[in-house]
């Protein structure tokens, strides 16, 4: 087991290699998520809400149906409707009924939503540098490819 993992788990007991990989990924993910959520907290949104805004900004001025937003999310959330409701109350998104199918609503990001995403973006770019400061560009590319290879068949 690697020294960093030993320190984090406060254990020197050997564990299977594949378990070590899984634990290291989980720890890194939790640490990155915690730092990200703390960073965006002053903007009054959560990481999941930011993800929805990011998705909608990518198709602006168009929007997406709730099911399309859900399928594009990094973290799958079963309560996408409630997430959109909260963003709508904050004036960051708006919903319109589809003219062909009145049961479906299309969610679009508002100018206020775009402004929040634009204000957060430079902070996220700095955070990427902090998170990868101990890695070379080559190592970042290699790590990215390896992680993609892991979740490829999931």
Give start-end ranges of low-pLDDT stretches: none
- Computed over alpha carbons, the radius of gyration is 19 Å
Mean pLDDT: 92
Shape: elongated
CATH topology: Arc Repressor Mutant, subunit A
Strand arrangement in the largest pleated sheet: 1-3-2
Main sheet properties: 3 strands, antiparallel
Approximately what portion of the residues adopt beta-strand conformation? 5-15%
Which CATH class applies here?
A: Mainly Alpha
Give a short synopsis of this structure:
The chain has 154 residues and is mainly alpha-helical.
Structural overview:
The chain has 154 residues and is mainly alpha-helical. It has a single domain, classed as Arc Repressor Mutant, subunit A (Orthogonal Bundle). The chain is 62% helix and 8% strand. A hairpin with a 7-residue loop joins strand 2 and strand 3. The radius of gyration is 19 Å and the shape is elongated. The mean pLDDT is 92.
Descriptive key words:
single chain; 154 residues; mainly alpha; Arc Repressor Mutant, subunit A; 62% helix; elongated
């Amino acid at each position: 087991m690697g020294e960093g993992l030993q320190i984090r788990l406060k254990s020197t007991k050997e564990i299977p290699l594949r378990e070590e990989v899984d634990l290291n990924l989980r720890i890194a993910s939790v640490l990155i998520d915690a730092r990200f959520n703390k960073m965006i907290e002053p903007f009054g949104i959560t990481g999941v809400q930011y993800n929805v805004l990011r998705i909608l900004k990518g198709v602006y001025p168009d929007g997406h149906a709730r099911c399309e937003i859900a399928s594009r999310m990094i973290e799958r959330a079963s309560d996408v409707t409630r997430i959109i409701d909260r963003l709508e109350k904050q004036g960051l998104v708006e919903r319109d009924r589809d003219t062909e199918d009145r049961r479906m609503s299309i969610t679009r990001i508002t100018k206020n939503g775009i402004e929040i995403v634009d204000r957060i973006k430079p902070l996220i770019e700095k955070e990427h540098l902090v998170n990868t400061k101990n890695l070379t560009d080559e190592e970042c590319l290699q790590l990215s490819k390896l992680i993609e290879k892991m979740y490829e068949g999931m």
